[in-house]
Specification:
Oligomer: single chain
Largest sheet: 6 strands, antiparallel
Structural class: alpha+beta
Helix content: 10-25%
Number of helices: 4
Radius of gyration: 46 Å
Number of strands: 10
Order of helices and strands: HEEEEEEHEEHEEH
Strand content: 25-35%
Distance between the termini: 159 Å
Shape: elongated
Low-confidence stretches: 242-254
Length: 286
């Protein structure tokens, strides 16, 4: 009897294991078929190589790659002909997607002109190692512009030297004829810096560079704060803090004057002579 029970229990265990194995196999097969199903894709345009800013794109510089359709990129180009003959307004790296916002219009041309946004102007100023912050003012950096000149006082009767900040957070478009920043951030000694400014600021900068002496101040590219610095007068710069140098007044001591002596004419017979006597009365009154 016990032997029959053992056989029945063994048979039940075998049947249960078979059913469970079939269930696991069926679920695993379903999972495999689901993972093997192709993911819908679309094709997007990317750079086939690193391309600097201002370059007019050619078909050989671009390629298309598959991209998951479920994760679309807003503004990405999907056809190479849509990008060809258009200039880049920002540098792109190899395999970086080409967005329409990175491209100038087909009529904008190529080079520096294509990188200037609508309503803005590019203006160049002469610099040296000092004005150009030892060559570290390079394309893509941000600067403030300071000018030192002579300011007329009230009624133009008095003039004083003054330094003021006329432009803040201005982008450098080019250093010399280079519009691409050095990859290692090395300084570039150039005679001219080109800045991106508004038309009104272009007029102010022209006046400053013509009538005064300009200086560029390099700033952190992520620092967009406006300092609103006050003008610095030459007279205030050299007198503030310690005040003016003390003026020493020398008072001359009043010297004692010697009173005139008394003159007395003495007649001795036929002989005359003048004798002087000290004026003791005048000395006693001083």
């Amino acid at each position: 009897m016990s032997r029959n029970r053992l056989l029945v229990g063994l048979l039940v265990a075998i049947v249960a294991a078979t059913v469970l194995s079939a269930f696991v196999y069926d679920e695993f097969a379903k999972l495999q078929s689901a993972s093997a199903a192709p993911t819908p894709t679309t094709r997007i345009v990317v750079a086939a190589q690193s391309i600097p800013i201002g370059t007019r794109l050619e078909s050989a510089m671009l390629k298309t790659i598959p991209w998951p359709a479920s994760q679309p990129l807003v503004g990405v180009c999907t056809r190479v002909p849509d990008c060809a003959n258009r200039a880049l307004i920002t540098p792109v790296a190899e395999n970086e997607p080409i967005l329409d916002s990175k491209l100038a219009s087909p009529e904008a041309g190529a080079g520096l002109a294509a990188t200037i946004p609508d309503g803005m102007r590019a203006i160049s100023v002469a610099v040296n190692d000092v004005v150009g912050v030892a060559g570290f003012v390079t394309p893509g950096t941000m600067v403030d512009v300071l000018v030192t000149g002579t300011a007329a006082g009230s009624g133009d009767t008095h003039q004083a030297n003054v330094t003021r900040t006329i432009l803040e957070n201005v982008r450098v478009l080019a250093a010399g004829q280079r519009i691409q920043q050095d990859r290692d951030g090395r300084p570039q000694t150039v005679p001219v810096i080109t800045l991106l400014v508004s038309p009104q600021d272009a007029a102010r900068l022209t006046m400053a560079s013509t009538e005064g002496k300009i200086q560029l101040a390099l700033r952190n590219a992520v620092d967009s704060s406006v300092a609103n610095t006050t003008p610095v007068l030459q007279s205030a710069l050299f007198t503030s803090g310690g005040g003016s140098a003390p003026i020493t007044h020398t008072v001359a001591k009043k010297s004692a004057t010697t009173p005139a002596p008394y003159l007395v004419e003495v007649i001795n017979g036929n002989k005359r002579e003048n004798k002087s006597f000290a004026n003791t009365e005048a000395n006693s009154n001083q």
